[in-house]
Design a protein that fits this description.
The chain has 459 residues and is of the alpha/beta class. It has helices at 10-21, 33-42, 55-60, 76-90, 102-105, 126-139, 173-176, 220-226, 244-256, 269-279, 293-298, 314-326, 356-368, 446-453; strands at residues 2-6, 25-30, 46-49, 68-71, 94-98, 122-124, 143-149, 154-160, 185-192, 195-197, 210-215, 236-240, 261-266, 283-287, 306-309, 331-335, 352-354, 373-380, 384-390, 411-418, 421-423, 436-442.
Length: 459
């Protein structure tokens, strides 16, 4: 597969690295010579300097024979024009663009995109995706991550194991396999002291671990309780930041949780006035600096269940979250772009960190996987993903019970959905054609995992 990635920022280079690891022929374009050089030297891809929307640049990048273009530059307009040029001049079949401006994303303007208009097959909006990711976390207080898979029949939960008295602490995963408190679950990945790994059945959960588990929706509450989390769903929320993420998030919360008491703090006076007009009387918008104790007091932060910090500045988000918790707010959900901050956030009292790049990468990967793979969720950059796929007749996965298969190292099958029933598989489970399988896969095992799932004719 030949792919052109426009934009050598964090998202573009990560996507390029994932594709290169699967032996795709990848060219990365960026107008910044240093970023293009870094991509060329750091990964098994070709980096080149140029404006991604210019026909001659795309031609030099090999657009004539490309299968896909992924446009993730900082400019919406460059991304759109790059897709248009790739379609009109070079016949590139698959076109994915990242767009940020709210005017392009308005559902009433969806006619803008289509084969006869702007030929973009998939539009990815980081702000909308991040807002949805935060809403998922609010639905399950205590979880730092939550994703629905298999049409909502399976929930992927990321849980902090912080309570040393919790039922699961010190227990081996094999001893917990029948379920805890009425909720069966399967642990598919553990993050421990900065190291991520796929656990074997005899691994024990330790205090301080971050554990990714799969369970059914009915098992969410008992599983969370077994980890020591019994937090109530938030009813009083303070949003810090009225940018695109904050505005999208406020609109979703007003639509899906009308009972919620919602306040917003925005530092820019003009933006605060604009957001107040957009949201109306349902949201109290305060103009001020969230690092100012008087502003937090005006927002009555001590009475809030949750503070959600989504400004464009990581440090403002982190410190305003810390201040809010010191003044009595129960929970902090914090947007953080810099991955280098990730290991220290729990020690600072951040309950759930949201990474725009990780969410955007997951969204894009979901649309570029081939064959039977239907969904992808990035657990952690440079570690691995959770794949959802259909087991195909003729694939090696359906040829024998799991215990008899030579499964790739770095592949952990977590759940199987068969005719609506969720199965947590063991060595004796035999996968049948048509089953939906959910597995955690390390980055190095992705190619082997896709070969395992694929039918013989595709492998």
């Amino acid at each position: 597969m030949r792919v052109i990635v426009c934009g050598a920022g964090q998202v573009g280079t990560t996507i390029a690295r994932h594709l290169a690891a699967e032996r795709a022929d990848v060219t990365v374009i960026d107008s910044d010579p240093e970023l293009a050089r870094r991509a060329d030297e750091s990964y098994d891809v070709r980096g080149m300097t140029g404006h991604a929307s210019h026909p001659e640049v795309l031609e030099r990048a090999g657009a004539e024979g490309a299968d896909m273009i992924i446009a993730v530059t900082r400019s919406d307009e460059v991304n759109m024009v790059a897709c248009q040029v790739a379609h009109s001049l070079f016949g590139v079949k698959r076109k994915i663009a990242r767009l940020r401006h709210a005017g392009y994303l308005d559902p009433g303007r969806s006619r803008l995109f289509g084969p006869a208009q702007m030929p973009i097959d998939v539009v990815i909006s980081p702000e909308v995706e991040v807002a949805r990711g935060i809403v998922r976390r609010l639905r399950t207080p205590g979880a730092f991550d939550m994703v629905g898979l298999a049409g909502g029949r399976v929930q992927l939960l990321g849980i902090h194991a912080t309570d040393p008295t919790a039922e699961v602490i010190g227990a081996s995963l094999s001893s917990l396999s029948p379920g805890v408190g009425g909720g069966a679950f399967r642990a598919v990945a553990i993050l421990r002291q900065g190291r991520a790994f796929l656990p074997d059945p005899e691994e024990r959960i330790l205090t301080g671990d971050d554990v990714y588990v799969l369970t059914e929706p009915a098992g969410v509450a008992p599983v969370m309780a077994a980890f020591g989390h019994r937090e109530r769903v938030a009813r009083r929320v303070v949003l810090i930041g009225g940018g695109n993420v904050g505005l999208h998030l406020a609109r979703i919360l007003l639509r899906e949780a009308p009972h919620l008491s919602l306040k917003m703090i925005e530092a820019d006076a003009a933006r605060a006035a604009f957001v107040a007009r957009e949201l109306g009387s349902a949201v109290l918008v305060l103009h001020g600096d969230a690092l100012d104790a008087a502003v937090l007091e005006e927002a009555n932060i001590a009475a809030a269940d949750t503070v959600i910090a989504v400004t464009n500045d990581d440090e403002t988000n982190i410190f305003s979250s810390m201040l809010a918790k010191r003044r009595g707010c129960q929970r902090a959900v914090t947007l953080v772009n810099k991955t280098s901050y990730e290991p220290i956030l729990p020690s600072l009292g951040i309950d759930a960190a949201v990474s725009p790049s990780t969410i955007t990468i997951s969204s894009i990967l979901r649309h570029i996987r081939r064959g039977a793979v239907a969904a992808v969720y990035t657990l952690r950059e440079d570690f691995g993903e959770v794949l959802e796929a259909e087991a195909l007749a003729g694939s090696r996965l359906v040829s024998a019970p799991l215990g008899a298969l030579d499964l790739p190292r770095g592949f952990a099958l977590g759940a199987v959905v068969r005719q609506g029933e969720v199965i947590l598989p063991d060595a004796g489970t035999r996968i049948e054609p048509g089953d939906r399988i959910i597995a955690a896969v390390t980055t190095g095992a992705l190619r082997e995992a896709e070969a395992l799932i694929a039918a013989e004719a595709e492998a």
